[in-house]
TrEMBL record:
InterPro entries: EutQ (IPR010424), RmlC-like_jellyroll (IPR014710), RmlC_Cupin_sf (IPR011051). This is Ethanolamine utilization protein EutQ. CDD domains: cupin_EutQ. The lineage of its organism: Bacteria, Bacillati, Bacillota, Bacilli, Lactobacillales. It comes from Enterococcus canis.
Length: 147
């Protein structure tokens, strides 16, 4: 049996604590991670401040910067909301349910379940959802909020 050193013990403890606090996410000691999206829910602490308190928008990052320093990924949930946004990062949105509309320069790009949208860095857009929508965002760089 391999001898346990301090680093291995820390990795194992971190993995066990992460799994107990968040059963939807598993991180292998190699750094490979899986997320059970159907188990993830958003809460008021995940609410995105769009500048309008009536907007119903939630974002929940799926990985910390320590876990994924280059690519960001998260769950976004919206309900009957349209809001302005400027992207200082690249983003891909994969729609799980509902329909996501991106308004830009008087045009609309839409995606439904199983479809995705690429939004290049520098885009000045409106995110828009009628009804409910749930989608995954992937960003580069990972620290999209600091851009």
């Amino acid at each position: 049996m391999a001898e346990l050193n301090r680093e291995m013990i820390e990795i194992l403890v971190r993995q066990i604590v992460t799994e107990k606090l968040n059963p939807a996410k598993h991180i292998d000691p190699s750094g490979i991670a899986s997320v059970k999206l159907p188990l993830l829910e958003v809460s008021e602490e995940d609410r995105l401040d769009t500048g309008n308190p009536n907007d119903i928008v939630y974002t929940k990052d799926l990985f910390s910067l320590a876990e994924s320093p280059r690519l960001g990924a998260g769950l976004m949930v919206m309900k009957d909301t349209t809001f302005d946004w400027k992207l200082d990062y690249d983003e891909i949105d994969y729609v799980i349910s509902g329909q996501l509309d991106i308004h830009i320069d008087g045009r609309t790009v839409s995606a439904g379940p199983g479809e995705l949208i690429l939004i290049p860095k520098g885009s000045q857009i409106q995110f828009s959802v009628t009804g409910d929508a749930r989608f995954i965002y992937v960003t580069y760089p990972a620290d999209w909020q600091a851009q």
